[in-house]
Fold:
Amino acid sequence: MISIIMPTMWVGPYYNEMLKQFNDHPLVGEIIIIDNDPDISDPSVLALSKVKHYPQSQNIYVNPAWNLGAKLAQYDKLCLYSDDVKFGMGIIDRIEEYITPQFGLIGFKGECVWETTHILYDDGKKAMLNVTNQPNSVYATCLFVNKGSYHEIPEDLKIYWGDTYLFYKNRHEGKHNLEIDKVQVLTLLSTTSSMEEFKPITTVEKELSKKYLEPLGFDMPPDVIIDVGAQTWKIT
Structure:
């Protein structure tokens, strides 16, 4: 069973539809909502049978919300879901057995993630997995990870670099990180983190992240991480 973890400020366009589909999926055991803005919570979502609602007195930001969700999760298989992403439930059917401590993170291949108006949505039933040595710039659109491969993100990284830390921490331990290919995923990237109030944190966290990432073999890029070729990993 999978625990869905969704930090939210209720600005993403897809959470309502996606959470209802998660709620109906037999492999989803619970939906943990870390509510960073409970004044505008969506009652229709909170009423879903698998939802567990954790309202916060103030915005704790996405990385601490992931940490909290991982601690609260009843199941070992985690999905770190962003509320601005839409994908087919067939993806869960295809990759669920690979969310194990043997592997690190599972994210999306760059070519599979598109802005909302650019591509038709598919059901995800053709999903395949590749091994990747470096995350692309949209890898963390949605992440799957086993608790055995989840490492608490340093508390001073609030918004950015948490996914990168998890990726390189697992790579440093000799685990393969995987990317999902052969699917079409819709998103409005950084719907929440691009809000004006968060922009001053960007530069600060880039500097802070160096002390955590460089010991793991990560070289800070001048701008964003680019996609690289991936070795094929078998999936049946």
About this structure: The helical segments are 15-24, 43-46, 62-72, 90-95, 162-172, 199-213. The CA atoms of residues 84 and 173 lie 31 Å apart.
